[in-house]
Every structure is written in C-alpha cells, then in structure tokens.
Amino acid sequence: MRKMLIAGNWKMHMTAGETEQFFREFMASLRQPPFREALGRSRLEVALFPPFTSLYVAAFALEEAPRGFSLGAQTVHWETHGAFTGEISPAMVEESGCRYCLVGHSERRHLFGETDEMTNLKVRALLATSLRPVLCVGETLAERERGETFTVVRRQLLKGLESVPAHRLGQDVVVAYEPVWAIGTGKTASDDDAQEVCHFLRSVVGDQLGAEGAESLRVLYGGSVKAENSAGLMARPDIDGALVGGASLKSDSFLAILRESLSALA
Ligand SMILES: O=C(CO)COP(=O)(O)O
C-alpha cells in the first residue's frame, strides 16, 4: 500500500525566525492524536519544503519529530560543485537534513526557465545521492483549453524521468500533478479531473517504465489544496497525497489539511 504524503511548499516565505515559530506550534500538535498514531503506523508521511535559509532551523526543530516527518528543498543544481553563483548542490541539500527535493515546479519552469532537460539532469543528480526527487508536472490554462493537458504532462513526466531505472521509481521518486491554473488562484481541480490526470500519469509510467514502478509510485495533487477540499481529493484511488502551497504556511491550516486527509484513509 502506498503511504500518503502531505507536503508543504513554502516557496519564498518564512524567515528563519518565522520558521522557528512555526515549528514550535506545529511539533506540539504533531505529537498528539491522531497524528502521532498515523505517523507511527506509517500510513502518513509529512514533509515541509522551507527556503534554503530556513533548512537548518527546521532540521534542528525536527530532531524531536516523530517518525514519518521529513524536510525537502525547493530546487537544486545538478552539478556536484563548481562556479555556479547562487546555486546549491545535491550534497549541500542532503547535508542540511533533507530527504526530498522539488524538481520542475511550474514557478521554476515559467519564471526561471527550467526546461525538461534541466528537470531530468536534476532528477538524476538527486538519485545519485540519498535524496528523492518530487517531479512536478502540470498544464497551463491555455494548454488545458486547447485540449493539450495529457500531451503536456506526459512529455514533462517522461522527459523528467528519462534514463531513470524502473526499480527506482516506486521507492525513490514522487510525482506531483499541479495544474498551473490552480496554483495560488483558489481554483482547485475537481476531484474527478485531478484523479483522471493522476491516473493517467500512473498509467504512462506503467506503459513506458514498468507496471511494478507504476503501482508503487506516489502521485500527489497540488493547486489550492485546503482543509475544505483535501478529504475529497485524498479519497481518490490514484491521488496519494498533496503538495500544498499557501495553506502550509500556518501551522493551523496545515494541520487541518493533515486531519482531513487522514479522514480519507479511515
Ligand atoms: O504550488 C503549489 C505547491 O507547490 C500550490 O500552491 P497553492 O496551494 O498556494 O495553490
């Protein structure tokens, strides 16, 4: 059975001081029911993706975290080291206490020119370490209206995973479907639409890369996830978790999503 992953992408929010404050509230709640039991029984995994400058503070706060809680970075460079001013290597991310790293988030693709070739270099560089890539795919509104959703996400998925051995997929890779038109807009994909695309992504992996990888691969949904819509989304068979933006910035709203998502597992 695939373990549910609820991830919070903080984007360019939260100073180190704000991070410290967040974790003070958050960790206290996470040690209480129902979270303690769910994390302990390995049904739920929670991950937060703070900005680089907050990773050490977060890692320190997490020393006392229950099992099943991890950290991730929001991006990475694919080279191991070198003259790349402003960039961070996989080893640097790994050493700051991360287990995951986002790759190909739509903001990186659209605002910073991240291409499919770059996402593939990043995925492979991460897999050469202990880090697990969370490969983000998703269509723009214009692409959806032109009927190109499936073509776009298929290309982003297969290019991003090119040359990744099938046996690494289920264990070490996570895919997140984030329709660009649903990010930060308050417009969520309907449960049916999100399920349809997540199912499609799993079937592409199955057809191209092997049934075993497809069955164990975790596919998340992201785009205006909040407490009100999370239980419905998480109850769908091919949606294995959420990638939450705005609603992960406050301990209360993120905990409410965790609570609702757990109810879908019951
Ligand atoms: O981009 C997202 C997570 O990576 C989604 O952001 P919102 O939840 O704010 O729409």
Automatic annotation (TrEMBL):
Q: Where is it predominantly found?
A: cytoplasm
Q: In which pathway does it act?
A: Carbohydrate biosynthesis; gluconeogenesis; Carbohydrate degradation; glycolysis; D-glyceraldehyde 3-phosphate from glycerone phosphate: step 1/1
- Which GO terms of the molecular function aspect are on file? triose-phosphate isomerase activity
Does the entry feature the keyword Magnesium, yes or no?
no
Q: Per the UniProt entry, what is one GO biological process?
A: gluconeogenesis
Keywords carried by this UniProt record: Cytoplasm, Gluconeogenesis, Glycolysis, Isomerase
Record family assignment: Belongs to the triosephosphate isomerase family.
Q: What is this protein called?
A: Triosephosphate isomerase
Which species is listed as the source? Aminithiophilus ramosus
